[in-house]
Design goal:
It contains one helix and three strands. With 72 residues, it is mainly beta.
């Protein structure tokens, strides 16, 4: 989806949208308040409605600190 093509339907009408609130609709990565910049954003296909969610690049270190690795 980051390359502008939907992985589900192959459509090219992809839109980026920030998460609404850093607390109520977002991943908790610590130190966030309802006024903080959200730590994630969405990419959505206007053709089929498929959505992917990504962590903003400036929050990747926090993800590594607070998250649990799922692989070796």
């Amino acid at each position: 989806m980051r390359r502008g093509v939907c992985v589900k339907c192959g459509g090219g009408e992809i839109y980026g949208v920030q998460a609404h609130s850093a607390v109520y609709q977002d991943l908790w990565l610590g130190g966030q308040t309802k006024w903080s910049r959200p730590s994630t954003y969405f990419l959505a296909c206007a053709g089929c409605g498929y959505v992917e969610r990504y962590v903003n690049a400036d929050k990747l270190d926090e993800l590594r600190k607070r998250g649990t690795p799922m692989s070796d």
